[in-house]
Design brief:
Elements (H helix, E strand, L loop, with lengths): L4 E11 L7 H14 L4 E8 L6 E7 L2 E8 L4 E8 L5 H10 L5 E10 L9
Antiparallel strand pairs: 1-5, 1-6, 2-3, 3-4, 4-5
């Protein structure tokens, strides 16, 4: 594939205390992660599903997004970081991983190709 990546995309699975964080704590976490990665937050929205039913949220970035979905009843939280430009998604992921020590955190990276990487040449 020619050209560089269009951005860094990380999928973060957290088992443990991340899942119990409330909407205010999660919004703060997404904002801190974005800042650590060098991104600019345009807006942030959290939606709680009720007592002990989890939260879904998004930090919309000038450089893409950071999202979270929690299932406290399962002790599971899923984060998604996609950053382009000069941002560092791995630094953002470090902030998320450190937010709830003692839990299990799994991080998977996906390479997002640049537009000139398409095989069909369009």
């Amino acid at each position: 594939m020619a050209g560089g990546a269009a951005g860094q995309h990380l999928l973060i699975e957290c088992f443990g205390a991340h899942a119990s964080l409330g909407e205010a704590a999660l919004e703060s976490l997404l904002r801190r992660a974005a800042q650590a990665g060098g991104a600019r937050v345009l807006s942030c929205h959290m939606h709680p599903f009720g007592a002990a039913l989890g939260v879904t949220g998004v930090a919309l970035l000038a450089e893409s997004h950071v999202t979270v979905h929690t299932w406290p009843e399962r002790g599971y939280a899923a984060f998604d970081i996609f950053m382009c430009g000069g941002c560092d998604a791995e630094r953002a992921a470090e902030v998320i991983a450190a937010a709830a020590p003692g839990g299990e955190v799994r991080i998977r990276a996906l390479r997002r190709p640049a537009l000139d990487d398409r095989e069909d040449g369009e």
